[in-house]
Specification:
Bound molecules: zinc ion
Helix content: 55-70%
Low-confidence stretches: none
Structural class: alpha+beta
Strand order of the largest sheet: 1-2-4-3
Radius of gyration: 15 Å
CATH class of the domain at 10-96: Alpha Beta
Largest sheet: 4 strands, mixed
Mean pLDDT: 93
Distance between the termini: 8 Å
CATH topology of the domain at 10-96: Zincin-like
CATH architecture of the domain at 10-96: 2-Layer Sandwich
Shape: globular
Number of strands: 4
Amino acid sequence: MSTRKRPPTKLAIGAYGFTVSRMSEEAARKAGVFGETDLHNQDVAINFGNTDQTVANTFLHEALHGVHWVSGLEDKPLEEEFTRQGANGICELFRRNPKAMAWWLATLDPKAAREFATALSAHLAA
Ligand SMILES: [Zn+2]
């Protein structure tokens, strides 16, 4: 499975609807990043040219910047460090504990869990 297939185009964070856009290889290299979040225009730009694991981690990392922004934490000195470590930790949590995380999502929100299962099946079949 490749992350380059049908990546998401939208992301809901707090009360905001973010767009998910593609960051070119050139822009990513120039900025020295794998992705970036434009909080004021609510856009998450991802360089989908990296490995699947890097793209997945970057997507979560940028989404966490949005979560921190809607929580009022974006200007705190350690925000980037919390974001990096949080994304790394959550990626590993899901990758190493799929059954536990399925239980967690079903417990948190059964409707969201059903939508997740449907979307995941469609994504894996693509
Ligand atoms: Zn960051």
